[in-house]
Design goal:
single chain, alpha+beta, 5-stranded antiparallel β-sheet, 8 strands, elongated
Length: 150
Amino acid sequence: MKHNELLEIGKEVIEEKGYELVEMDNRLKKKPPRLIYYVYREGGVNIDDCAEISRGIDERLPELKDVSGSYSLEVSSPGLDRLIKTQDDYRRNRGKKVEAHVYTKVDGKKDFIGTIVDYDEDSVLLEGEDGSKTRLSSKNISAMRQWIDF
């Protein structure tokens, strides 16, 4: 199966149903073979949403001539622990509290917790709980994910 065709079919079905494709994980050459689509919608994604999208994708996969053998098709939300790494990820997480770790210290620190208040092609602006703002270069961010309060 060609990666780009799988990606395009998934994206079309997902968007037709009012969701956004975050990422596709093609593990068809591994054991066990799996194809995973991660989807997003403001307000969240539930199990019924995932089942509906999965049925839609499954109906379209036979369009690819080289779809054969057994494999698992999974549809999931990205999860809170997924790394935030693209412009679309920044957009989806704008206004949300995140933790960020950088390669090179910024203002004497390598770890930050704050809310994404702005972003551009080159950087992300975080606002701390005390109102302080720190701009982090996208290239300097080693990891960023949503902050999870326990």
